[in-house]
Amino acid sequence: MPLYDFHCLDCGEKFEALVLKTAPACPSCQSARLEQQISTFAVSSESTRESNLSGAKRKHAKVHRDYTNDMRNAEKNHHH
User: Is 48 in contact with 41 (CB distance < 8 Å)?
Assistant: First the structure.
């Protein structure tokens, strides 16, 4: 499918649009004054999935650690 990234020259909105036969319009202000952006492509492989999953697990562990520490500090301060 021909998906393209656009930047609206009138309101600054950045969006992705499916372009078939008609020119797209900005979803925010309906302007036709658009600048097509250079699109990047997505690469999906087992190693990228594993890398993304590993990063998400590390982030979750840090959030959980911070939450646990905050709860402990709140309990300590509450029992004065």
Answer: no
Measure the CA–CA gap between 74 and 43, rounded to whole angstroms. 44
The radius of gyration computed from the CA coordinates of the chain, to the nearest angstrom, equals: 22
The domains of the chain are located at 3-36, 45-80
pLDDT along the chain (80 residues), means of 10: 87 91 91 87 75 85 87 82
Phi, psi of 42 (to 5 degrees): -95, 140
pTM of the model: 0.47
Interacting residues of 67 by C-beta distance below 8 A, sequence separation 6+: none
pLDDT at 25: 93
